């Protein structure tokens, strides 16, 4: 009589496929950006910020929900990536640093979402200065506050993947470049010359998460075979 040894499916041991949370992050990021078209910008006047918040509460609410929702699959992705690297024998601190970046990015999105929602809810008070302040917080947290930690996440995945040759070299190098530039968006707080680095961190980071979700092997054997 043979006794079957219970096994645990690979996807349970290693978490969900990376492509699932990566796709969710990408879709929600784009959707939130579309919802934010026409919203207050750094150059908007207090009156313009107040007028938009007062006349578009539903759109702002949808955008806030999308921003808040983006943080959840982002953290799931990072946690799953940590487990994937462990299974691949990578003991470097990079993936854990990436997880920290994902948590910081998700927290920034939460602040941005709640600031925008609050701006819409309080627009009826007619306080343009308050609405403008909330709009700045909305932009800052969802811009630099999100892009820079996203850079840490991308670097945390790219560097160990490059060192251990788990993915094609060009992909890992691209990830390092995107991650470094996203981190440099931190200095957009000092000069608006670096504002272009913010969308690079937001959208470029989402693209890199998708690329690594596809390229990163599940096991060492799979990586060697590829």
Automatic annotation (TrEMBL):
Entry's transmembrane regions: 18-38, 58-82, 94-115, 135-163, 170-191, 197-218
Domain of life: Bacteria
Alphabetically ordered keywords of this record: Membrane, Transmembrane, Transmembrane helix
Name this protein carries in UniProt: DUF4386 domain-containing protein
Source organism of this protein record: Pseudonocardia nematodicida
Origin organism lineage: Bacteria, Bacillati, Actinomycetota, Actinomycetes, Pseudonocardiales
């Amino acid at each position: 009589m043979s006794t079957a040894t219970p096994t645990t499916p690979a996807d349970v041991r290693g978490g969900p496929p990376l492509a699932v949370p990566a796709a969710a992050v990408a879709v929600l990021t784009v959707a939130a950006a579309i919802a934010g078209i026409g919203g207050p910008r750094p150059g908007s006047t207090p009156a313009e910020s107040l007028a938009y918040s007062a006349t578009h509460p539903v759109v702002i609410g949808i955008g806030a929900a999308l921003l808040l929702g983006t943080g959840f699959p982002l953290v799931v992705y990072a946690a799953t990536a940590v487990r994937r690297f462990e299974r691949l024998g990578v003991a470097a601190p990079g993936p854990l640093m990436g997880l920290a970046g994902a948590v910081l990015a998700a927290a920034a999105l939460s602040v941005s979402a709640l600031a925008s929602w609050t701006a819409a809810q309080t627009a009826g008070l007619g306080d343009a200065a308050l609405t403008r302040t909330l709009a700045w917080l909305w932009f800052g947290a969802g811009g630099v506050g999100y892009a820079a930690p996203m850079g840490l996440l991308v670097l945390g995945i790219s560097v160990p993947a490059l060192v251990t040759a788990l993915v094609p070299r060009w992909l890992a190098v691209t990830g390092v470049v995107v991650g470094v530039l996203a981190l440099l968006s931190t200095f957009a707080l000092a000069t608006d010359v670096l504002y272009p680095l913010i969308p690079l961190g937001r959208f470029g980071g989402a693209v890199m998460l998708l690329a690594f979700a596809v390229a990163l092997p599940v096991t060492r054997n799979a990586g060697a075979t590829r």
